[in-house]
Design goal:
alpha/beta; four-stranded parallel sheet; 5 helices
Length: 138
């Protein structure tokens, strides 16, 4: 477990620069719904490592179950301005709760596609964790 501000520390940023110089991709797993301070910290990190290549996992894990769309959508819009960041559409049903419908998750997926474009989005199944709220058939 890491504390607040971990990804904004000098050592972490220097490590990210080494990853960038090595032409490696760094997957970002933050919890916008549970730990919203990570959104600003990530924006700082990305500004500090402009030549890195990043993938946002699970669309940033928004709090879909409680329909906390607004702050997450503003963050996605800001994040998409970094052309070196891609968005993995995965883990959506896990964050949506057990009573999700396609209408529940549609605005989140559409916003990612709108902001990042199809060329910077990818799909991930999040199997087997997705089984918490959905079967593979669903």
């Amino acid at each position: 477990s890491t504390g607040d501000g971990f990804c904004t520390t000098h050592n972490f940023i220097e490590g990210m620069k080494v990853i960038a110089q090595s032409d490696l991709v760094f997957d970002i797993c933050i919890r916008c719904g549970a730990t919203p301070h990570q959104m600003n910290e990530l924006l700082f990190l990305l500004s500090s490592v402009p030549n890195g290549l990043f993938v946002l996992d699970h669309i940033g894990k928004p709090d879909i179950a409680n329909n906390n769309y607004d702050s997450w959508s503003r963050f996605i819009t800001q994040l998409a301005q970094f052309k070196n960041v891609y968005c993995k559409i995965s883990g959506v049903v896990t964050e949506a709760g057990s009573k999700w419908t396609t209408e529940t998750i549609r605005p989140y997926v559409k916003h990612c596609l709108k902001e990042f474009g199809y060329e910077r989005c990818m799909f991930g199944s999040d199997w087997f964790v997705c089984n918490i709220n959905a079967s593979i058939e669903r």
